[in-house]
TrEMBL record:
Pfam families: VWA. SUPFAM superfamilies: vWA-like. It comes from the Bacteria. Gene3D superfamilies: von Willebrand factor, type A domain (3.40.50.410). The chain crosses the membrane at residues 12-27, 47-70. PANTHER family: LEUCINE ZIPPER PROTEIN 4, SPORE GERMINATION PROTEIN. Keywords: Cell membrane, Membrane, Transmembrane, Transmembrane helix. This is VWA domain-containing protein. Residues 87-292 form the VWFA domain.
Length: 339
């Protein structure tokens, strides 16, 4: 809930400008005088000179009255959104081939995983109404993060992804099976509260490991009503690849031949009514995720309620109190003068 203060008729405040002008003219007005012989013998204190306090109070009372006429209000605004988000699993390849340095980020050569991470983070941040989970796969597929609305935590988990965390290989079929399983579990938790579910599969190679074939995993997703968006990362052919010694320390760069199985990824997308994207650069990876974001975004209804509370009574009470004090002060001074 958001609360703000406003004046319903602020133009009344212009009248406050007139108060100092009135005070200035009142101070300059002339008082008639009569010259009498021996006046000092019967002189009494002037009542007029002792009304400064009451005059000040009267002016403050007038200012408070003007503020009341301007109708100060407090406006409490409450927003209610009726939305149903998606459950999304990001399945990211962590096989050795993701170390290939055929991408450029900020004009610097980068490996495929380094180029993918900021794009993943940007996608996660844009999907604020969705639960998102993370599957990491190489020779096997693991749940790196369950479905969650905590996108900051998920971003940190994404940043921790590293090549070599899982035994080498590319288990595309297994990754689809694990992702589908996690989404089916999520469907039970949010029955009737989600718009749907889909998988984003990002890989740069061929299926070389795992128990399940890629199309078997795709069939599991299809039977569960889950679309799969496939992104083929990297270039076919010879690409720069880091050379490492037995201790894993980099000692140079070599050229290795790598192949992306775009045909299988296209079949997976077609089988599940998803879409295939070819991403040979960091820009095209970003464009692929933006396209997915546009395709699978839901519009939701937002209702806004405003409660207006009139506050004019407070300055009006203050004006009355100040006026009463002015009258009391004036009468008290008059009694002292006549005593």
């Amino acid at each position: 809930m958001h609360t703000k203060f406003q004046l319903a008729e602020p133009w009344w405040l212009l009248a406050i400008v007139a108060l100092p002008i009135v005070a200035w003219f009142r101070g300059r007005r002339s008082v008639a005088a009569m010259i009498l012989p021996n006046a000092g013998a019967w002189r009494r204190p002037s009542v007029i000179g002792g009304t400064k306090l009451s005059t000040t109070l009267i002016f403050l009372s007038a200012a408070a009255t003007i503020l009341a006429l301007a109708r100060p209000q407090s406006v409490a605004t409450e927003r209610h959104s009726k939305s149903r988000g998606y459950d999304i699993i990001l399945a990211v390849d962590l096989s050795r081939s993701m170390e290939a340095e055929d991408y450029f980020v900020d004009r610097k050569r980068s490996n495929r995983l380094q180029a993918v991470k900021p794009v993943l983070s940007a996608f996660i941040n844009r999907r604020e109404n969705d639960r998102i989970g993370l599957i990491a796969f190489a020779g096997r597929a693991y749940t790196a993060a369950p479905l969650t609305f905590d996108h900051k935590w998920l971003g940190r988990q994404t940043e921790r992804l590293q090549i070599g965390l899982i035994e080498d290989g590319t288990a595309i079929g297994d990754s689809l099976a694990v992702a589908t399983s996690r989404l089916l579990e999520g469907a039970k938790e949010r029955a009737g509260e989600r718009e749907g579910a889909f998988i984003v599969l990002l890989t740069d190679g061929e299926n070389t490991a795992g128990i399940m074939e890629p199309m078997e995993g795709a069939k599991l997703a299809k039977d569960a009503g889950i679309r799969v968006y496939t992104i083929a990362a990297g270039k076919n052919g010879y690409v720069p690849f880091p050379r490492r010694n037995e201790r894993g320390e980099r000692i140079g760069t070599s050229q290795e031949f790598l192949r992306v199985d775009t045909e299988t990824l296209m079949k997976i997308a077609k089988e599940t009514d998803g879409e295939f994207f070819r991403a040979e650069s960091s820009d095209t990876i970003d464009q692929a995720f933006e396209k997915i974001d546009e395709t699978s975004t839901i519009e939701f209804e937002v209702q806004q309620y405003s409660t207006i509370t009139e506050l004019f009574s407070y300055p009006l009470y203050a004006a009355g109190l100040l006026a009463a004090l002015a009258v009391f002060s004036s009468r008290n001074k008059m009694r002292e003068a006549l005593a």
